[in-house]
Amino acid sequence: MQPKPKSFRSSSINRIAHLFQWLLPGLGIKRWVAVILIGTTLVGLGFAVLILDLYRNAPGNWWAPLLRVLSLQQLARWVRALIFGGAGIVTILIGIAGLNRALLKPFMRPGKGILDTVTAFRKKERGPRIVAIGGGTGLSTLLRGLKAYTSNITAVVSVADDGGSSGELRKNLGILPPGDIRNCLTALSEDEALLSQVFQYRFANAGNLSGHSLGNLFISALTEITGSFEEAVAESGRVLAVQGRVLPATLHDVRLVADVTLPAADSDVHVKGESSISRAAGQVRRLWLEPSNPLAFPPAIQAVLSADLIIIGPGSLYTSLLPNLLVPDLAAAIRSSRALKFYVCNVATQAGETDGYTCGAHVHTLEKHVDGPIFDLVICNNRFEGSLPPPLEWVRMEPELKEQYSVYQTDLLDVENPWRHDSLKLARTVIDLLNERTGPLLGRDDSL
User: Fold this and answer.
1) For residue 191, what pLDDT is reported?
2) Which of 99, 228, 307, 411 gives 383 a disulfide partner, CB atoms 3.0 to 4.6 angstroms apart?
3) What b/e sequence results for 164-181 when a residue is b if at least 16 CB atoms lie within 10 Å of its CB, and e otherwise?
4) Which pTM value belongs to this model?
5) Which ranges of 241-290 does DSSP label H, i.e. alpha helix?
6) Portions of the chain given CATH number 3.40.50.10680
């Protein structure tokens, strides 16, 4: 007989090694394997009693020689126990792997094995509890990177938007603006392929539908069906298979109002509406919500108080970040939370809002509106390459800021869109800084 080729032997060893990887810590598999082994052992004991009876009464029967061969009678008992026990365990593992593969096949992503999928799921399931607060493209950029490290993500999103498709739906249907929430849902989606692209699809040259995104219309329709905006957001998350939650900062119909100093004016101008503040192109002196003192959404408060890390930013300073912090209960919860609190400063200024702002100006503006310091760490970009479209400028850190705050500078730039953060760089930086200050939170026991 020809010996089996080396490649065949090595593939067999790899296959066996792959089976035993199911017993790695943290997968939640070993406990169920133990249950199956106990059940199998009990069934085996039942068969053993029957076989033992046949074995004892076999000498005078025709099946005696066959029974002696099958029972490996010529070998020592401990050797037989090892052979039968080992064969049984391997058979059980093969059966479990095959059953899992059959059950999970509809949920598998192309090119990713079942063990890799389960391992990644378990790792992210035990990841840190992160609350990200903001709105617009900045928050969705952060979320898109964070979902690779943890599924315990809660995005708390501003509902002060009154422009574009969201503003039209808000005015015509009387619902909260779905735009920023839609962006966060798609960013947290497990598969940002076709379904997420459909959710983000914006109609053009379609009469009354022109300018509206399908996701906004979908959330609006679910709001009518369920009778609840928050339930519509939750159902949309299930459709997109999001890793985490997206919550509105408040369920009240709030408007953003500002006193703005215009370049050619001697006095402040009263500007009402989030979209109008950006278009005013002046210096914002004071910002508030109408009606004042809206109640925060209770699940958002609970998420903040139980978080390991709270991240504010990146995002439009006056129209994405501050509308959340102007909800009094939410700001109080952030201050009271024992979580670490990071502020991620923007890479570039925003026309009409933060022209000429430094990193310190962003931080001071936020803390002026929440009555004092709240951040444990300020994260700034230190790579300034590429050309910014005018009138945008780089947001740089002044040396004096390090005398007042803990500041971390690193390369966070998206080289293709230099006015934005790179989601992977930003998420990796945030997780590394969190682990540096707290140690890895993987394996945390949530029952304690």
Assistant:
1) 66
2) 411
3) bbbbbbbeeeebbbbbbb
4) 0.76
5) 274-280
6) 126-158+249-438
